[in-house]
Design goal:
Blueprint (H helix, E strand, L loop, with lengths): L3 H14 L7 H8 L3 H13 L3 E4 L3 E4 L1 H23 L8 H8 L5 H10 L25 E2 L9 E6 L4 H9 L7 E7 L6 E5 L4 E4 L1 H5 L1 E5 L3
Helix pairs in contact: 1-2, 1-4, 2-3, 4-5
Length: about 220
């Protein structure tokens, strides 16, 4: 069994390590909003448990055991998000904070039964893949809306942030999972994007917003 703090460190290292070979202490401390000295202490503790490898000045990286633990936490988190959204009617801007608490219930039996109860979903409410019991995650081709071709119909399939205010903004604009749209124009001056929803509503969004909305071709 691992503490909540240990699991949070392992999950954060996993996410940071997707973009870099080793995770530096300062980056990890910033991610978890703690002091570098505290992060170093926890890193050494997790290394002693065989969950990561640490080298001073070079940072840390998860071992196979650490990666397996991280994927298990992510699996629980995303399954709970799906449950909260689909079964309890939570908004997609609300589920992350609640799932952050539920993900620490360390019961494989509960997790597997929850997965079966939900019909073995492959993606969470934000479009992120849900690991299966072995850690495998389904891949899906997606493109940032900022790079999507003009006049080509698309469907929203994911977002690049789970920030509550960001998701609330998308909901107000009716830009949600499964929303269908067409990019009318990319403005070179400030990289804003004009788009039109299948409902007929049209508006312009910022470059930052467009970079954090992912779309895919509409399936026939």
């Amino acid at each position: 069994m691992y503490t909540v703090a240990e699991e949070n460190y392992i999950k954060s290292i996993y996410h940071l390590q997707r973009h870099q070979k080793s995770v530096h202490t300062n980056d990890l401390a910033a991610e978890l909003q703690t002091r570098p000295a505290s992060a170093t202490d926890m890193i050494k503790k997790l290394e002693a448990k065989g969950l990561l490898k640490y080298e001073k000045y070079y940072g840390c990286s998860l071992t196979r055991t650490g990666k397996k633990l991280a994927l298990g936490i992510i699996r629980r988190h995303r399954l709970w998000e799906f449950f909260l959204s689909e079964k309890l009617g939570f908004g997609w801007e609300e589920v992350h904070a609640v799932a952050e608490q539920l993900e620490h219930v360390q019961s494989d039996l509960l997790t597997d039964k929850l997965d079966a109860f939900l019909g073995f979903p492959r993606f969470d409410p934000h479009g992120d893949p849900i690991p299966d019991p072995s850690g495998y995650m389904a891949a899906r081709e997606q493109t940032a809306l900022s790079n999507w071709a003009e006049q080509l119909p698309a469907e929203v399939c994911g977002v690049g942030s789970q920030d509550e205010s960001f998701l609330e903004m998308l909901s107000l604009k009716k830009l949600e999972m499964g929303s269908r749209l067409t990019v009318l124009r990319h403005f070179n001056f400030d990289k804003t994007v004009e788009l039109q929803l299948a409902t007929g509503a049209s508006f312009t969004i910022s470059e930052m917003l467009a970079k954090n909305i992912f779309v895919k071709p509409i399936e026939a």
